[in-house]
Every structure is written in C-alpha cells, then in structure tokens.
Amino acid sequence: MSILQLVLIALIQGITEWLPISSSAHVMLISDFVGLTGRDELLINAASNAGTLIAMLLYFRKDVAAATMGGFELVATPFSKRPLSPGARLALCILVATPFALLGAVIYEQFIPEDIATSFRSVYAVAASTIIFGALLWLADTRGAQTRSEGDMTLRDAFLIGASQLVAVIIPGTSRSGITMTAARALGYERLEAARFSMLIGAPILAAVSLYGIMGLASGPAGGGGATLSDGLIVAALAFVSGYASIGLLMALLRKMSFLPFVLYRFALGIALLATSPLVAGSVT
Q: CB of 132 within 8 A of CB of 271?
C-alpha cells in the first residue's frame, strides 16, 4: 500500500471516529477513492481503530481509571454490601451499554446476506442515513433544556443509549458516536456528558474491531501483495494523533455551541453524495 493511501485513511478515521458524522461512511468513501477494496479495506479500517481507541483512553484517562477501579469494586460488591462509588456506577453503566454494539457486529457478520450488506454500503444508503440521522441529532439537541449529568444516569438510560448502537453497526452513515449522542441528548443529558459517555461506551467494540483487524493483517499470506501488519500499525499510529486532536476539538466546541455544525455538515455531505452519484448525474446530463 502507498503512504498516501495510509495517510488519507488514518486521517479520516482519526478525525471522524469520535465526531457525530460517521467514520465508517467517510472511511468507506475514501477507501473507494484511493482504490482500497475487499480484504484490505476491511482489515486496514479495522486496524486503524486501535489508534482512535488509544486516543480516547488517554484523553479520558481519569474516567477510564475510575471505571477500571469501579469494575473491581463491582466484583466485590456482593461481599462488601457497600453503596456503589461514582466509578463503580460508571463501570456498571458501560457494562450495560456495551453488549449491543457487539451484538450488532455479530448480526451483521453472521445473519445479514451479502447482497443486503452491499446495499447498505451503497452511496444512496449512506447519503440517506447521513441526512436522516443528522436530522434526528438536531431534533434531540434542540428539544429543550437538557442538564442531566453522569451522576443522574440510570441503568435504563445506559441500556437505551447502548441499544442505539445496533443501528450504527449495521447501517453505514448512521455514526455510532452520533446516534449514541442523539440518544443521550433525547434523554436529557447535557452535551459534554452525552459526548463523553458515547466515547467511553465505544471502547469495547473498538477494542474488538481493532483486534480483528490486527490479527487479520498479521495472519495474511506472506508476499501476497496486499495490506500488511506494518500498514495496519502505521495507520493506527496516525489515527491516534488525528483522533486525539479530534476529541479535543469536539469537547471544546461543545462547551461553546450546539451540535448544529455537525448536523449541517451531515446534510451537506448527504446532498453532495446524492448529487455526485451515478444515478443522479445520469439523470441530469
């Protein structure tokens, strides 16, 4: 693979993974642009998630440390009988929200026919989901005063936010981070809290996807001319840098404004995809 291909994929993956604009749609489109298809596209994109995952863990290291210690506390709770600490409650909410993304990945891999999966990845499906779920984000973000914080989160809320990931795993263009932030905003959580929890519950699925990509590249046929483990590690390293910067930018923006810029971007991207699609272009000429 060329350095240009690796850099473009890494930058797109890192920048878009945590923004509510669908990293899968962007990476899919850039992969088509640079001619990366099939096994190479799947594994390189999967491996790039390792970089964005590490970026998130580092940026929210205090929350990650608290949730990790809280996990040990959860194990001891049946014996200690003590009330849960904030870290333990956060760990429990993450655990409740996690299975849905993993379930969605299994459903997509094992039960969705190849022709349907291909149709989900078409430019028309991506454009439609980009616009529709952008509109839902706008509605959730503007429906009224939303000031709930992590301390207010119930297991029901964690369940609902986590369940929303099912759609994003199956339909490119939805945005896993976008739909979970939408769900959190609809449940009344303030913007920064919605974004932070969305990123934290994304860790398990990103870890699974990253492992799949790296193992797939490592076990590839020697001298086959396709993507290699070195390519995957380069993409992951570059995605870490752009991903960390992207998280910082998102959190800074949400301290000052709404999700409207991301909604408008989604509308513009969806319209551009439709306007440049072969079907639309053919009907205009």
A: no
Quick one: pLDDT band at residue 278, thresholds 50, 70, 90?
Answer: low
Query: Contact 91/74 with Cβ under 8 angstroms?
Result: yes
Return the exposure string of 139-160: e unless at least 16 CB atoms fall within 10 Å of the residue's CB, then b: ebbeeeebebebeebeeebbeb
Question: For residue 272, which phi and psi values (nearest 5 degrees)?
Answer: -65, -40
pTM confidence score: 0.90
Query: Using CB atoms within 10 A of its CB, is residue 230 exposed (0-12), middle (13-18) or buried (19+)?
Result: exposed
Per the CB < 8 A criterion, the answer to whether 15 and 242 are in contact is: yes
The structural domains of the chain, with segments of one domain joined by +, span: 3-284
Residues 6 or more apart whose Cβ sits within 8 Å of residue 280? 274
d(CA 1, CA 215): 18
